[in-house]
Design a protein that fits this description.
Length: 179
């Protein structure tokens, strides 16, 4: 069936340390009308297989104790901005994990607004590669690499600049520098 989500507003999921998965059944279509922002704090939001909102335009916001896991690559190819507000300490970090099978390219804005470190991971043994090619800005640090068992590659081809540091751990990463 077709489901319509008319959300020209922002939605912040405060998951109180838990997790929430969106994954409609195969063959179901969910449509977004207007621009919206989807955010997560204090838990894990999983945008599962078939969860993409057709016609979605908007941003993804991951706050200091939030984790966003994206399985459907269309979330990355159609999102205009991702904000990671990291606080990499004992209480948690802001992280974005791509665990889709298909390769994905994110070319929107990446804003690192946290006081410490945010993280971008790939996961899954059959995972698709992730390319980050948009403009980066902000003051936070960025940690990039695979989750345990991931064979996916992350390519950093970001433009612009931020005042933090980039740390690459484990796995295979490709950095394309500006001319």
């Amino acid at each position: 069936g077709v489901q319509t989500c008319a959300l020209p507003i922002s939605a912040l999921f405060d998951l109180n340390g838990g997790s929430f998965t969106t994954a409609p059944g195969a063959g179901e279509t969910v449509t977004s009308v207007g621009t919206c922002s989807i955010g997560v704090t204090n838990g894990t939001l999983i945008l599962g297989a078939n969860s993409y909102l057709d016609d979605f335009t908007g941003s993804l916001d991951v706050q200091s104790t939030g984790s966003l896991v994206i399985v459907d690559e269309r979330w990355l190819t159609n999102t205009t901005s991702i904000q990671l507000a990291g606080d990499f300490n004992a209480s948690g970090l802001a992280s974005l994990t791509y665990s889709g099978v298909a390769d994905a390219t994110y070319s929107g804005a990446l804003v690192l607004s946290g006081v410490n470190t945010s993280a971008i991971f790939t996961s899954g043994a059959a995972g698709g590669d992730l390319t980050l090619s948009g403009a980066v800005s902000g003051t936070g640090n960025l940690l990039v690499g695979p989750d345990a068992g991931s064979t996916a590659r992350i390519t950093l081809a970001l433009t612009g600049g931020f005042t933090g540091r980039t740390t690459i751990f484990g796995g295979d990463a490709l950095i394309q520098t500006q001319a």
